[in-house]
Design a protein that fits this description.
The chain contains five helices and seven strands, in the order αβααββββββαα. It has 192 residues and is of the alpha+beta class. A hairpin with a 4-residue loop joins β6 and β7. The longest helix is centred in the last third of the chain and has 23 residues.
């Protein structure tokens, strides 16, 4: 029998911070004190087709599935969507409930250097029952030079004492999941 998952309110401060951070260059000072953070950017290819494939894979949860997670979610990322991913093996999975707090279909924006770029992605925040408090975002970017980048942003801290005691394992798990997401982004972009 799996544990019940609360579908309560978002349970962390700094709601939407990953959306704001997504439109800026990496800056370690933008993250809240007391939270670990991830800000990884990976070049996955070039051109509109690569960007479209990566953006679609992000918006339809393929990036999570290719990273080895089970995902229960609506077909597409949209603000307010509830998502339960499962970490683990077989029936021994820890459910991690989240809610999408921002979503962006492919959109033209001014890049960091003022030139036009395209961006798509979403960020979701933790709900009660998640082992962490925080937010994570998955972003596809088509840069002015035609390069396509996958950017993963996250900030988190353990949700309670038991998870705080297990934080060394949590940090190793987060690093492994980050690598899995990066490989999944390469796979999504590799079809072109």
């Amino acid at each position: 029998m799996s544990p019940r998952v609360s579908r309560g309110r978002l349970d962390y401060p700094y709601l939407g911070l990953t959306r704001d951070a997504a439109q800026k260059p990496a800056d370690p000072e933008q993250w809240p004190k007391g939270f670990a953070h991830v800000d990884k950017t990976l070049n996955v290819g070039n051109g509109q087709d690569v960007f479209n494939a990566l953006a679609e894979g992000i918006m339809t949860w393929k990036i999570q599935r290719l990273a080895g997670l089970q995902v229960k979610a609506p077909p597409r990322a949209a603000v307010g969507a509830h998502v339960v991913s499962g970490f683990g093996v077989g029936n021994l999975r820890l459910p991690v409930p989240c809610e999408v707090v921002w979503a962006m279909e492919p959109t033209l924006l001014a890049g960091p250097d003022g030139r036009e770029m395209q961006m798509a992605g979403f960020g979701y925040g933790t709900l009660p029952g998640h082992p962490a408090l925080g937010e994570e975002a998955f972003i596809a970017m088509l840069m002015p030079d035609g390069g396509v980048h996958f950017r993963l942003l996250a900030f988190s801290k353990p949700a309670g004492l038991i998870y705080t005691l297990g934080s060394p394992v949590t940090k190793l798990t987060q690093a492994g999941v980050t690598r899995s997401y990066q490989q999944a982004a390469r796979t999504l972009a590799g079809g072109f």
